[in-house]
Amino acid sequence: MTAHPPRAPRRSFACIAALVLAAPLAAQTSLTQPPPLGAPAELRLPAVQLAKLPNGITLRLVEMHEVPLVQITLRINGGARLDGDLAGLATFTANMLDEGAGTRDAFGIAAQAAYLGADLSTAADWDHLYVSLNTPKRTLAEGLDLLADLALRPTFKATDVARERDLRLAQIIQQRDQPNPTASLAFNAITFPAGHPDHRPANGDSSSTAQLDSLAVRRFYQRLARPDQAEFVISGDITIAEAKREIAARFGRWIPDRMARLRPPVAPAVAPPAQRTVYLVDKPGAAQSVIMIGAPGVLRANPDYAAIEVMNTILGGSFSSRLNQNLRETKGYSYGAGSSFAWRPLPGPFVARSAVRSDVTDSSLVEFFKELNAIRDAPVSEIELDRARNYIALALPGQFETTGQMADQIGELLDFGLPTSWFTTYLRQVGAVTAADVQRVARRYIDPARVHVVVVWDVEKIRSGMRGPDVGAACMRPLHAAPTCGPYMRPLHAAPTCGPCMRPLHAAPTCGPRRPIAVQCSTGHPCPRPSPGLPLMRDAPTGMLAR
Amino acid sequence: MIPFRACGWGLALVFATAASLAAQAPSLTAPVTVDTVANGLTVIVHEDQSVPVAAVNIWYHVGSGDEKAGRTGFAHLFEHLMFMGSEYAEYPTFDRMLEAAGANNNGSTTEDRTNYYEWGPSNALALMLWLEADRMGGLLPVMTGGKVDLRRDVVKNERRQSSENQPYGLATETILALLYPAGHPYSWPVIGSMTDLSAASLGDVQDFFRSHYVPNNATLVVAGAVKTSEVLRLAGEYFGHIPRGPALPRATAEAARLARDTSGVLEERVQAARLYYVWPTVKDQADDAAALNLLAYLLSGEKNSRLTQAMAYEDQSASGVFAFQDGKRLAGDFWIVATARPGKGLPELQGTLAPELNRLTNDGPTARELDQAKNSTEANLLRQLETVNEKADQLNSYFVRTGTADGFAAELSRYRAVTAADIQRVAKRYLQAPRVMLSVVPQGHPELAATPTQVTP
Questions:
Q1: Core vs surface per residue A240-265: b (16+ CB within 10 A) or e
Q2: CB atoms within 10 A of CB A88
Q3: In this predicted structure, what is the pLDDT of residue A518?
Q4: b/e sequence A359-373, b meaning 16+ C-beta within 10 Å
Q5: Nearest Cβ partner for B386 among A31, A403, A539
Q6: Are A33 and B88 inside 8 Å of each other by CB?
Q7: ipTM of model
C-alpha cells in the first residue's frame, strides 16, 4: 500500500503568503524597502511507503536519494511508562543493548559500527524503545547485521550491567551540578503525583538504579521486544523492496516471547495545583536563578492543537515571542526565555522557563506572570498572529531535509496515530487560527493562578534581595530531596554537539532556534564543556527556547 | 587548487557546474560558483534543489583573536549588536520579518571569525540577502549607546549561563591564560571578561564596524534551491553599493610554547574532580593537524578508543574522557579532559592515562583502529552534506581556511593520507612535551588534585 503524497492546498498557502506580502510588489530592486516574498513552494512530501512482514513487523519508508545515507529506526512499543517500581528500567535496558550483543562486547560493537561509518544508537522515551542506525549506503548490510544483533541478541551480561549501573549512579550524582536538569527534576516531581510515571525521572534515581541487575533487564526486554510491537521507520537512499528484503532476512524469524506483553498502567489523573506555589531549590553558589513555571499540560489528540501551537509561538515559542522579547530583549534579565507544551501520548507539562540574573529573580517572576496573564486578557495583534502562523506553516517544508528529520516526522505521526495527510491538515488549521482562538486557548490551557513555580537559586545570595513578589506561597525544597536522574534520555537524532562525545571535524555546532528540551548524552560519557574552539552562539539553547 | 581571483559581474569563475544534486552520482562534493563583487565581497553559490529551502551564510574575518587588550569579548558582543537593527530594518524588524517568512537565523563568534546565517523557505532568499546587506551597509546610523548597554546585559547573562553557572565552566579560561602568554590573542576566552564587557563603548562599536565589517573582509555563501545567476544578481544589487573598506592586516602571533609543565587547581562546587591536560600543537591546516585529529579519535572517539576503554570501562576511574585537537588560524592546542567518578582522586586517573598514552605512542594504532577513525571521519563529512544550512557554513569555512569552498573531498584525502607512523610521530612530538595541567576539584578537597609532573623540552 502506498500513501498518496499529500499536497498543500494552494489556496491556504496563498492565503498565508498574502499576509506576508505587506511590501509592495516592486519590480525594481530597492535598497530601502524589503523585497517582496515570492510564492512559497508547496509542501511536497514524498510518499510514505508501507510494507508488512509475515510476523507482524511493519516497515514505513521514505526514499531520499540526495545523499548516500540510510536511516533505519526500530521502534518498539513500550518505554519508561512500563518501568513499574524500578524507575529507569526502560532507559537502562535501551542503554544495555549496545553493551554486548551477538558475539561482540561493547568495544566490538562500537568498533564495527564506526568502522562502517555508521551511527548506531539506542534510546528509550516514555512510550518507546529505539534502536537506530544511520549508515552510508554502501555499508547498509553490515550495519543492519549489527542492528539485528542489538535488537535480537543482546547479552545483558551481569558484569556489563553492573558496570553501566555504577556509571549511571555516578552520573546521577554529577547531575546535581547542572541547574537546568535540577529544576526539571524538581518540577516533574512536584507536578506529577506519586504513582504517575512522570513523577520520577525516566532515567531513574539513585535508589532505583542501585537495584538494577541483569535478571531484571533481561526479563523486561524479553517481554517488551516482540515483532508484533515493532516497527521500522526508514528514510534515505533505499527502496521499499530493498528494505523489505534486507529486514526480512534478519528479522523474519523473530517470534514473540510466550510471556504476555507488558501493558502500561493507567496513569492517575493529574490536576493543576489549587493555588500558585513557589518552590525554592537551593543551589549554593549559583550565578543565576533557573525559573520553571508550569502545570500538567494538554492531550495531543485535541482539536485545539494548532491554535495552541500558534498561541505558544507568540507567548514563548520563537525568538520574537513575548517572553523572550520581554525578559531578554527589553529587560536584559536573561540570555533567553521561552515556553512550550510537551506533546507526548500522555499529556506532558506546559512550562515557561528562563535562567535569570540572581538579583532580578523576583522582577523576572513578575514579568513572567505579566505575560502569562496578558496572552489571556487581550487578543493578540493581527501582526503577531500572522507572524506566528507563517513561522509555523512556511518553515514546515524545511523540516524534512535530512534522513533523521524525515524519520522524526514519520515517528511523530506514529506516536499519535496520525495519517500522512495530517501535515496538510495541520497547515490548513494553522492558517485558520484567529486572534480569538489564541485568546480562547490561552484562557483554557494556561492558568497563571494555578501553576507550580520552581526556582533553582542560591538562597544565601538571594534571601536579602528577594522583595517578595506577589506570586504565591513559597515553600522551600532542599536540593537533593527531589529524585535525581542521569543524563540518558535524548531525542533520536540529537544534536551533534552533545551526541557522541566527539567534536565534529571543524563543524560549527548548529544551534537551531526552536530545538526543544535540552539535548543530553546517551553515550555514557559526559558532554564536554564547550572547548575554546566551539563558537559562542548569539542565542544558545536555554533548555526550552533554543536560540 | 584553483587560485581565487576577483572578477567582474558576468565573468563568474565557474568551478563546477551546479547541476541538481538529485541527478548526480553520490559523492563527497558540493559544487560551487565563486564570484566577487567590485567592492571585494566574495560570493559563493551552491545549488541543491532537493528541498525548497535556502541558506545564506556570511563570514566576517574577525573574531576574539582580533580584540584589543582590555576589550576581551568585544567581537562576540558586537555580533549581538548586529541584530539590533540597521538603517532600513530598524530593530526588531530583522527577526520579525524572517519569522514571518518561516525562516530562522543566528550568528556565532570564534577566535577567528564571526558568522551570521539565515535559513528557510527558498522564496525568502531575497529577504535574507537584503537584511544582511542592510546591516553590512547601515548599522551605524541607528546604533546607540542604549543598544550597547542592553546587549551588554544579555551577553553578561550569556556568560553567567554558559560559564559561571555551569560545573567546570571556568576551567577553559583558566587554561587559556596558562597556555598562551599574556597578550596573546588566544589567551582570553571568546566570551571575554565581565570587566572588559563593562568597558565596551559606543566608540568601540563604531571603530570595530568601520574596520572589520566591510565587504572586502567578508565572504557570502548561498546554498539551496536557488538559481546561481539570480543569487549573483541579487548580491550585486544589494551589496554592491557598500564601499570597500581599508585593507586590514589580521592579528599575528607566535604559536604558544611552554617552557615547562604548568599546573593549576580550581576548587569548585562540583561533585566529581576533573583533569585537564592541554598541549600547544599546530594551527588549522598545518601538516600535522589531520594526524592530531585522528589521534584524538583514537584516544576517545568511541568506546573502544584507548582512554575511554581503559578509564571508563576497565578500571572505571573515570565517568568519561574526551580528547580533541583545536586548530585555529594562529595556533592550535590538544586537550584531554577526564572526569573522575565521584570521590575518586585525579592521581588515579593519571595512573591509567599516562601508560595508555605511552602505549599508543610507542606501538602505534592497529591498521583496523586507524581505518575505523578514518571511516568515521568520512561518514561525518557525508552527514554534513545533509542540510543546506550546514553545507553553507562548511563551504564558507573551507573557502576561508583553504581557498577552495568545495573542500569536502580534499579534507577527506588529508585524513586518508595519515599513517600509523604519523600518529606515533605527532603523539611523541606534541604530547611528550610540556603541558598545562588543571585539576578542578570539589570545594574543600584539594587532596583530589592531580600530581604535578615535570616535563621540560
A1: beebbebbbebbeebebeeeeebebe
A2: 30
A3: 25
A4: ebbbbbbebbbebbe
A5: A403
A6: yes
A7: 0.92
